[in-house]
Amino acid sequence: MYQTDPPLSPKEVLPTMYDLPSEYPEDSGLPDEFHLFQPQLLRETFSPPNYPAEEVFVASDLNLYYDLRHTLWYKRPDWFAAVGVSRLYEQQNLRLSYVIWQEGVAPFVVVELLSPGTEKEDLGQTLREINQPPTKWEVYERILRVPYYIVFDRYTDKLQVFQLVADSYSELDLSTPRVWMPGLELGLGLWQGSYQGIERLWLRWYDASGNWLLTPLERESQRANRLAAQLRELGVNPDEL
Q1: CA–CA gap between residue 80 and residue 58 (Å, rounded)
Q2: What pLDDT does residue 30 have?
Q3: What is residue 24's predicted lDDT score, i.e. its pLDDT?
Q4: In terms of DSSP bridges, do strands 198-206 and 56-59 run parallel, antiparallel, or are they unpaired?
Q5: pLDDT per position as a tens digit, 144-176
Q6: DSSP codes joined into one string, 162-175
Q7: Which pLDDT tens digit goes with each residue over 80-111?
């Protein structure tokens, strides 16, 4: 394609979401159960009060394309959220991938769930090989400049939070396994409880009062309990209805 004067925008000349799908046959296997359930819990409890729902996009195991000079390079975060961007691609379609030069908004927070095979790269302990794409750490820190990078090791229940300070990530010293994110008016922390019938420590969002945000199922159960209590106050046994 010949260059024009003035140059066309990347949105017009570079690959779109439809050209850069998320699935590749050479990718190995499907995520394990934890990698399915934990991102689901994060999605269900992520509702920043300072953004309308239609301006919040969350994804897990979705290709994130980040370099307009190397349009096939991507990372696939275990979970990420972008705010101030349309929930639907161009207000109409579900996304096949997240393409930075199309969206114009980088993720605000990225979560990686440590696996034995990815631990060193997730923690920025690997060096970029010659003629190879940058590491996850380099992409999140230097290219996308993601404000918060969260790493959780489910084998040791260790939570690490890296915040972008100036040009690099600084690990926060957590007195408790929680971090408050003013830009979202939400916090993220470790919650001991049962999700999907599994009792363990889970990553979960909480509000300004320190309350864990409820999943849709928990909200429905809470409403049902309130209704039952109201019926009992009226002398009606809800169990007999």
Answers
A1: 6
A2: 56
A3: 58
A4: unpaired
A5: 999 999 999 999 999 999 999 999 999 999 999
A6: EEEETTEEEE---S
A7: 999 999 999 999 999 999 999 999 999 999 99
Spatial separation of the C-alpha atoms in residues 60 and 124, rounded to whole Å? 20
Which helix (H) or strand (E) covers residue 229, if one does?
Answer: helix 216-233
What pTM, to 2 d.p., does this model score? 0.88
Angular region, 131: left φ>0, alpha ψ -120 to 50, beta rest: left
Query: Greater confidence, 63 or 224?
Result: 63
Length of the chain, in residues: 241
What is the C-alpha separation between 134 and 111, in angstroms, rounded?
Answer: 18
Strands 79-83 and 74-75: unpaired
The sheet that has 168-171: what strands, in order across it? 56-59, 79-83, 109-113, 148-153, 158-165, 168-171
Instruction: Count H helices and E strands in the chain, helices first.
Output: 6, 12
Task: At 197, list the tokens.
Answer: 């019938």
pLDDT at 210 over 90: yes
Q: Which two tokens stand for residue 193?
A: 């409880």
Tokens 């275990």 belong to 78
Cα angle, residue 81 at apex, residues 77 and 85 outer, rounded to 5°: 125
Q: 63 with 22: CB under 8 angstroms? A: yes
Give the three-class secondary structure for 54. Answer: helix
